[in-house]
Amino acid sequence: MTSDRAVVITIGNEILSGKTVNTNASYISKKLGETGIKTVRSISVGDERLDIQWAVKEACSSADIIICTGGLGPTWDDISKRTVSEYFGRSIKLDREQLRIVEEKFRALGYEKMPENNITQAEIPEGAVVFPNSRGTAPGLLIIDGSTHFFMLPGVPSEMKGLMPEQIIPYLQKTLQKQEIFLFRTIRTTGINESLLAELLHPVLGNLDDPEVAFLPNPYGVDVGLTTKGKNNEEILQKVRRIEEDILKIVSKYIYGYDDDTMESIVGFLLKKLDLSLSTAESCTGGLIGDRITAVPGSSEYFDRGVITYSNQSKIDLLDVDPSTLEEKGAVSEEIARQMAEGIRKKSGCDISIATTGIAGPSGGSPEKPVGLVYIALADKFGTVVHKLHFRGERTRIKQQTTQAALNLIRLRLNDKNLYSD
Amino acid sequence: MTSDRAVVITIGNEILSGKTVNTNASYISKKLGETGIKTVRSISVGDERLDIQWAVKEACSSADIIICTGGLGPTWDDISKRTVSEYFGRSIKLDREQLRIVEEKFRALGYEKMPENNITQAEIPEGAVVFPNSRGTAPGLLIIDGSTHFFMLPGVPSEMKGLMPEQIIPYLQKTLQKQEIFLFRTIRTTGINESLLAELLHPVLGNLDDPEVAFLPNPYGVDVGLTTKGKNNEEILQKVRRIEEDILKIVSKYIYGYDDDTMESIVGFLLKKLDLSLSTAESCTGGLIGDRITAVPGSSEYFDRGVITYSNQSKIDLLDVDPSTLEEKGAVSEEIARQMAEGIRKKSGCDISIATTGIAGPSGGSPEKPVGLVYIALADKFGTVVHKLHFRGERTRIKQQTTQAALNLIRLRLNDKNLYSD
To answer: What CATH superfamily is the domain A5-175?
Structure first.
């Protein structure tokens, strides 16, 4: 086996009906990719003999490595093992050693006797390699047929996620004589839309074959994905770094992080580095800024408190917002955003404070103040800045975009070398 | 078009590499299923001409309805439209009307000029039906070729999720002469694990063929999915209702809602019905309760305010928590949870208040107070109740489970007929 192409097959009616989101396929592809194996197709079919046969045939004609999950359970609708074995002309036999293992697992779970149905999980296709499953009763199986390596794994995500890194990947690494290693780099941007970003980066990325480039929009911005491969780490790192430098020259102000960075982890990192404390006053975002900040382990080191001031009265009580300004300008206004940020900063004694007020919709909009209108204010010892923004989309999207812009405002402020220096 | 079989094609390197979980495929299959159209295959390929051609060919030979997403963006890696049109022998032409629409969308976003790249989004395959996209610039497209109906939708989930229910499903319903109707019923439970739920329901569901039953664990509990079909609404409703009654008899106390209900929408409904106001005091959940409550449109009618008291000082300042109790018992304790709930209730003047304090991890645990230990308190005019809970999993999972238990505590309290009556 020298191929570096794979097909992933996920079997199960619950996937085809849309009841279950297919996280197995993405997990497997990711693990394969890290090993330098590219998934060229991902196919899902239901627990139907003809559909499984079709998928197996298509997979085998597209790649030498096939990873198939689902249908290894103990019930009558689990027909994957039988159908795949049939395809490869292998008989299925009860394996004594495997039976002993399955029975022992049931005893360990406190059962007196293994349920009759589970005997099928001790049946092994002729000549198959068996991979022990530490988290369940169905082992992983591998049928080798010429250059084809057909792996069967249980569909229960926790069991599959045990077998892949513990058994399958090491097996593939050992068996494959890998010539190349892969690098995936993600450059995370916010505050710029996909097409403008692509237009700005076209001179650099437009005619690029290697690395491969992808633009990946998400609720918090647009990620630029770079994929490359090479003979050694040095070579591929150099290749990616050259492109990264070119990208940075053009759009650095939109880039907030790389790979697994999140905006909240970056903001946390900066606050910690500068030894600053943070407090929040949220209206339209309803607590989502606080939720995102506290998603970062160790955030209690810099996040002191937040208030969610949904009613007008709560803005007066908790932030000393001026009732007459509320009356005159309305809760969604530059003035109120400013008073909210300054209010929470004063009350909390924190170094830096952020506030949001806006109209998340779907109702509550007017011609002067439409749904999606948002004010974000930041207060620190250098003063207060207020940004007026207009977002589109549903309530949840508007909340998400507002929190991203608010956290980004903190990031940009802390990165301003005229104000904060290391 | 009379077929009730569909193939879903999702195109994108980010899906094949596993970077993006394929939520589009499950969403589309779910929507099709609700219309009585069964997805027989789901295929993902990368942004490669040959792979897309293969997927289109396979799909067209398996079903009359094909829904394809991805690769309609404005950048050079978006080749789906071109490749699919080529397959069907259709030329692509700039559509003046479509260009006007795309340009207008950019003007509405405040751009002086549409980025050059976006011109491609106004190009339409010969003879294609165009479905306006209210949330983005790439319209949905339909190529009809004999009995084949090939739909192309943008891959951005929010845009696809606009087009499917607003445009594609109504079109299919009108075009299809449907013989059978499907019913999907989801019964949402929380506070009980999957295997115990399955065990309790085995007498009712164990040997059931129709409806089909599925247990679907998610961060907020376990959903029981029932699927059935029939000739008319009456018939299938009766079938499902009978089963539902049996399920209710056994596990009613764990059921919080049905179908698209969320815990936060149910709590909102009850608060509105009883005309009660709510405030929150969050420590370990960091604002996620507030975020969930305010995810419900119209929540400002009952949600007054919340505080995120992450530091000890903030608990003293904002909730009048007793410093000596903090010193003696620690922030994660029954006493502090009680004082937090009572404190925010008193300060806000709300009818009902909820508070959380716990150890979300990964650090901060001890043998006496391990990671996952959580106290939830509810205060109302009838008194204060405190629940001690222990959750497992990562930081985010612990936060999610805590918010679910907190909201559920409100739900159960408001449903207590000895306290609150309609």
So the answer is: MoaB/Mog-like domain (3.40.980.10)
